[in-house]
């Protein structure tokens, strides 16, 4: 009688990229093997990203067609950086016939906290500087590898963020660069702050692996950035004028 053969599931191979802030990074995950390149490049992501991707693929001895998916940080974040990341992800995925995992930038930052108890549920407030006195934020619940969004992603000033959290569960952990840049305004919102300043391609790739396992990948043509701030093309001067008009209207009321 022939013995039964139990198939062994092969690990997903996922390439992750992040261009959502001043850092640019690429990471390749193949089972327990991890290959990463990262550098702070300002807004020059397009000058570095493809070379980083080539480097991690070469180090892993793979090509794009050997990957199961391509994950990218979809936003919120730098308008120009997000456009670069999405365009590169779409172009490479089209060429290699890969599915894509658009990963929320704030989800990736929450994922970056490695020392959490894998059994206990943690509530994480990710707060990322959005400039002009505003903050990108999201309230995320995480237990082990499983995390889901409770509130957000949203854009608000510090006081509006406080108002939005009044009816929310208590925040265990705060992370993101807004805790450094707006520390006084955010004081008391979280039981402790973990200094994770930015998203990283490794966290994006890890969430891409989870998306692949869950069947949550999308076709390359469906990938799109998540801006949160709808009027991304408006100038600082226009925003300042809006604030002055609002202040004048409040004073006259």
Question: What's the SSE blueprint?
Answer:
Layout: E1 13-18, E2 23-30, E3 33-40, H1 49-60, E4 69-75, H2 79-96, E5 99-104, H3 105-111, E6 122-129, E7 135-143, E8 146-156, H4 158-164, E9 173-175, H5 178-181, H6 183-186, E10 192-193, H7 201-213, H8 236-252
Parallel strand pairs: 1-4, 4-5, 6-9, 9-10
Antiparallel strand pairs: 1-2, 2-3, 6-7, 7-8
TL;DR of this structure?
The chain is α/β, with parallel strands linked by helices and 253 residues long.
How would you portray this structure in words?
By secondary structure, this protein is α/β, with parallel strands linked by helices. It folds into two domains: 13-107 and 199-234, 2-Layer Sandwich (Nucleotidyltransferase, domain 5); 114-193, Nucleotidyltransferase, domain 5. 32% of the residues lie in helices and 27% in strands. It contains eight helices and ten strands. The chain is globular.
């Amino acid at each position: 009688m022939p013995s039964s053969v139990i198939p062994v599931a092969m690990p997903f191979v996922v390439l992750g990229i992040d261009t959502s802030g001043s850092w640019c990074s690429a990471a390749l995950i193949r089972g327990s093997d991890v290959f990463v390149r990262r550098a702070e490049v300002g807004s020059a992501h397009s000058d570095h990203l493809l070379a980083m991707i080539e480097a991690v693929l070469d180090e892993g001895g793979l090509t794009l067609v050997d990957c199961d998916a391509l994950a990218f940080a979809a936003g919120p974040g730098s308008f120009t950086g997000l456009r670069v990341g999405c365009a590169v992800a779409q172009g490479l995925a089209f060429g290699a016939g890969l599915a894509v995992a658009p990963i929320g930038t704030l989800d990736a930052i929450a994922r970056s906290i490695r020392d959490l108890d894998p059994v206990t549920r943690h509530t994480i407030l990710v707060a990322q500087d959005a400039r002009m006195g505003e903050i990108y934020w999201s309230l995320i619940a995480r237990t082990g590898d499983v995390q889901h969004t409770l509130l957000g992603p949203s854009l608000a000033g510090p006081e509006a963020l406080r108002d939005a959290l009044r009816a929310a569960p208590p925040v265990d952990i705060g992370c993101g660069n807004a805790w450094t840049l707006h520390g006084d305004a955010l004081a008391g919102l979280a039981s402790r702050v973990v200094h994770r300043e930015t998203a990283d391609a490794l966290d994006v790739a890890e969430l891409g692996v989870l998306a692949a396992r869950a069947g949550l990948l999308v076709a390359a043509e469906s990938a799109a950035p998540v801006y949160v701030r709808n009027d991304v093309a408006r100038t600082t001067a226009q925003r300042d004028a809006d604030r002055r008009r609002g202040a004048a209207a409040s004073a006259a009321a």
